[in-house]
Amino acid sequence: MARERRDRGETDSRDNALVDFVVKIRRSACVVKGGRRFSFNALVVVGDRRGKVSYGYGKANEVPPAVEKAIKEGEGNVGRSKKVSVRGSTIPHRVIGKYGASRVILVPAGPGTGVKAGPGVREVLQACGISNILTKVHGSTNPLNLVKATLNGLAQLRTKEDVARLRGVQL
């Protein structure tokens, strides 16, 4: 029951209105004398749907502890993350997020468009609270790099007021 709610992005009241999305679960194998020993890695995106978003990466010998570790790390990182500049339900301007060999292009969209994005990018945007946006991925499609590139792009966003204040001009 709790896992189903978490996968849909719903939260309990005790979670302080944070939503989490499991982006990727990977299995890793270590060959030992008696055979293979498996461990699991979980990538989770955590956000408050009001502009604060982060990710967590957890590793454990079973899937549920790996997911719990990732959620705990992501919740800790959300408090330290900067709030994203959102204009209504979209972003204020076009931006390109880069991380490693991944490039994510984020383009504002009109009302009713929805989130046109692939896995990894979609979860970050939904956890951030953006509901109308167009995206395109170039280069590597590694989920961890896509999440980091999307967060990099969101960190570059500026509102008109921010730009006016930085330049020292009146609008």
From TrEMBL:
Any Gene Ontology CC annotation: small ribosomal subunit
Keywords, alphabetical: Ribonucleoprotein, Ribosomal protein, RNA-binding, rRNA-binding
Domain of life: Bacteria
Subunit: Part of the 30S ribosomal subunit. Contacts proteins S4 and S8.
Domain notes per entry: The N-terminal domain interacts with the head of the 30S subunit; the C-terminal domain interacts with the body and contacts protein S4. The interaction surface between S4 and S5 is involved in control of translational fidelity.
Family: Belongs to the universal ribosomal protein uS5 family.
General function of this protein: With S4 and S12 plays an important role in translational accuracy. Located at the back of the 30S subunit body where it stabilizes the conformation of the head with respect to the body.
NCBIfam families for the chain: rpsE_bact
UniProt name for this protein: Small ribosomal subunit protein uS5
Originating species: Gemmata obscuriglobus
Classification lineage: Bacteria, Pseudomonadati, Planctomycetota, Planctomycetia, Gemmatales
Gene it is expressed from: rpsE
